[in-house]
Amino acid sequence: MSDGDLMEGVAAESASLAGHLGLGKLIYLYDDNRVTLSAATDITFTEDRAARFAAYGWHIETVADGNDLAAIAQALTAAREETRRPSLILVRTHLGYGSPHKQDSFEAHGSPLGVDEVRLTKDHLGWPTEPPFDIPDAARAHFREAMTRGAQAEAEWNARFATYAGKFPDLARELRQILSGEPAAGWDADLPRFAADAKGMATRVASGKVMNAIAPRLPALVGGSADLDPSTHTVLKELGAFEPPGLERADTQGSEGGGWTYAGRNLHFGVREHAMGAILNGIAAHGGAIPYGATFMVFSDYMRPPMRLAALMGLHVIYVFTHDSVALGEDGATHQPVEQLAGLRSVPRLVVLRPADANETVCAWRVAVATRDRPVALVLTRQDVPTLDRARFAAAEGLARGAYVLLDPPGGDPEMILIASGSEVGLIVAAGERLTAQGHRIRLVSFPSWELFDAQPREYRDAVLPPALHTRLAVEAGVSQGWHRYVGERGDVLALDRFGASAPGGVVMRELGFTVENVCARALALRGVSPEVAGG
Amino acid sequence: MSDGDLMEGVAAESASLAGHLGLGKLIYLYDDNRVTLSAATDITFTEDRAARFAAYGWHIETVADGNDLAAIAQALTAAREETRRPSLILVRTHLGYGSPHKQDSFEAHGSPLGVDEVRLTKDHLGWPTEPPFDIPDAARAHFREAMTRGAQAEAEWNARFATYAGKFPDLARELRQILSGEPAAGWDADLPRFAADAKGMATRVASGKVMNAIAPRLPALVGGSADLDPSTHTVLKELGAFEPPGLERADTQGSEGGGWTYAGRNLHFGVREHAMGAILNGIAAHGGAIPYGATFMVFSDYMRPPMRLAALMGLHVIYVFTHDSVALGEDGATHQPVEQLAGLRSVPRLVVLRPADANETVCAWRVAVATRDRPVALVLTRQDVPTLDRARFAAAEGLARGAYVLLDPPGGDPEMILIASGSEVGLIVAAGERLTAQGHRIRLVSFPSWELFDAQPREYRDAVLPPALHTRLAVEAGVSQGWHRYVGERGDVLALDRFGASAPGGVVMRELGFTVENVCARALALRGVSPEVAGG
Q1: Residues of A in contact with B466 (CB under 8 A)
Q2: Is B273 a catalytic site residue?
Q3: C-alpha–C-alpha distance, residues B422 and B450, integer Å
Q4: What is the DSSP string of A498-515?
Q5: d(CA A386, CA A263)
Q6: C-alpha–C-alpha distance, residues A273 and A14, integer Å
Q7: What is the pLDDT of residues B348-388, one digit of tens each?
Q8: B445 vs A186: CA distance, rounded Å
Q9: Are B469 and A533 within 8 A, CB to CB?
Q10: Which residues contact B188 (CB under 8 A, 6 or more apart)?
Q11: What ipTM was predicted for this assembly?
Q12: Which pTM value belongs to this model?
């Protein structure tokens, strides 16, 4: 850990939680050099770091001289022996140690010392200046011992595991299965199906039902929310809270049944979205678990840095973002996501899924569990959306291809395409009915994921959005950014390039233009537009 | 402050900095009710809050009973009397106080008590149950006293200010000017002009020169970076560091000259981007300053929530984001922004400016200072870019319109348009020269800001991007998202829909396709494409 690591908020959130959880295996070696990139810490960072971490419930060790290897070893031993609290070891060091002109200077942080100062430093430390990269034989031999030790440790582990597998073949198979990262065959046997229902249900509610249906056959699934379980519907019921065992806590309200132990599969992150994102990455990188984290869609902004790292590292992390549009209503513009969907889609490799109804939500979870080489974000509604009658509309499994034809006019040959994602699919379905009644030939496309659609072969994409059919209207309660690529220059986008407002969700949607009337009007207007390139 | 406020990382960053700076006017009243939305704090948040804030250097007061008004008043008095440290007052309260079934329960956090429980609560508190909204006359009279007190205070202030203005008319005029939020006439008199130069300079360097040129005539300009001054070039030289006066600090390296006082115009945020964004909002909302904050472009992800609030609230905040593409080189994919430009552009009302050279950077600062009703983000290069010869190319002032024709073929009538922002403008200029030498008729468009261009009248937009001219290539070292709107379905985008890589900047750009050869090839390929709508 560096000074910067201790200053960043994500580290403060994580350290508070680690102290609460009593994570005794965690040890921070803090490189306490009192210099950052631009200055000494005296200009920005003069808090009592040891006292802060003690307040978090950490065990503290101090090493006065970072070159005193015996003192460091002693502190590490003490930290290892402390099994019920994480440990912070403050090690006083000197940046650019031994450099006559740059030691303890911020100029040694981001810039090389330079040829001359390197020579002076070697002189000062009594080190030969030639050859420039010199590794003494004793050092080489010392480091190479690690190879022997590592090979021995691996052989010992393999022998112990073979013995274990001989005695407990089923448990060994399960452990191998979980560590492989691949869900066991049949993990999806209990995925629900939802009956058609005009009133329907919120996709967050459908998601909660899916999670609890699959959790028993998918022991790797662990996770939780940033203090929003009752709203995100992400509790795994009766599967316990991940909390330090054996502690007496005065008030256990809010726990979900199943007890408080380190075997609990529900993680309680507190109001700490950024730490949540980072912790999910750590779990996924370790292996043996498929971690998920939940919060309101607008708060995804708090955890963009770890989401980016998950995408960059190809980690299998699942995000559950609920309350996904201005339709959440009264909480108002601060809580209403508008640009977050575009922001998530902009991250390379991150798969964003915005299912239209309960059955698309089932399929979205199937994709989220099966997509092992990258993170997946599920974008879900607060409000009820109709559960579509799949006898009339195409099967929800089309979600896996990113976009699919939900309905075509009888005999085909549509004159225009209405496109939507998530809760706006219900809107284009209603608009489609009205336009059909007026004698128009309408294709409806459900478009839950740009990334999955872009990965389809050209033939499939052209079948869903035929190149010759220019009359296309996309409807989404978020910023329009990026939709023009799919509707083309002769199409239109009914979107929301402004912030929301505080009123009941239905009122907000109506006032901002998300009505059947407006969808129909915008669609019909397209039929009269001359085909020219817009200036912007 | 709530439990959630104390858990969030941004509050931890801010509190550490407030303690360091000795902000004695700052008082937190902490509503210590031990219940969050989903549970008791026992499940997530058991740190010693008072000890943590003491470690930050805060003064601590505790009130055992939140209904004890005298104790609260006493604690507030003590907090006000402490002028050299911020104060935390922990006030023990009970959520849903007086409710027989919901007091101290998380169910009282986000949901209404309901009609029955409200009646029971009123009964329990000895309050009349009818009428449902009852304000006793004594309470009304007490609150209305605030109107009289406020009117008196305003009258007293106005009288004092009138006396002051009589004695010191120049100072009074300056104060009024600064508080109006409008820069004084002539603030831009010393804006530099940069001579044409093929080697050129990084736009971050040009920005630093602009800032130091305008600072003397623009006393409202205050700000700093999240520990990156030497890299972002955002120091106001010799204008002092905002630091508590009278303190002996052992190590003042990194300060910029001008002393350490509360009059210092350079703010040192430490490695705390999120707090920086939030603090800028506070300064802007207070008025009397035009605050700026700087960091590397990729770290803008850490401060999206406060940037969103600045846009929502219409605050005049200036962000300086440097190291704006994969061309930053060796720091690699973790530090190379790719999706950040699209992410910033997705925020409603936020103006994003990516100037192409030193003189566009001058104009970008002019727009940033003059745009008073919303935040502005300047997106700047680490690497040198050519300073264009404005005798040959159109004037850099075109930046203010978002996009402008940099160069047209002799006699006009271009056959294709090459479009770019920032450092890629130099690339299309070079490609344009090559294509022109091959006999093609090329229009070059510099496109530093989508928001400013979209706000132009249709005639201007059509003049820059003529609707009939379909052969358009946009070039930008970031994700392509959103560019299709400007190039149309018969155009193309040379962008970067993947993460970067670690190598010298020139090598990264070349390997990822940002070469004159590739720009020319992609542009020429467009000339043979048949006009049909792409499936995606």
Answers
A1: 535
A2: yes
A3: 13
A4: S---SS-HHHHHHHTT-S
A5: 38
A6: 10
A7: 999 999 999 999 999 999 999 999 999 999 999 999 999 99
A8: 56
A9: yes
A10: B214, B217, B366, B369
A11: 0.96
A12: 0.96
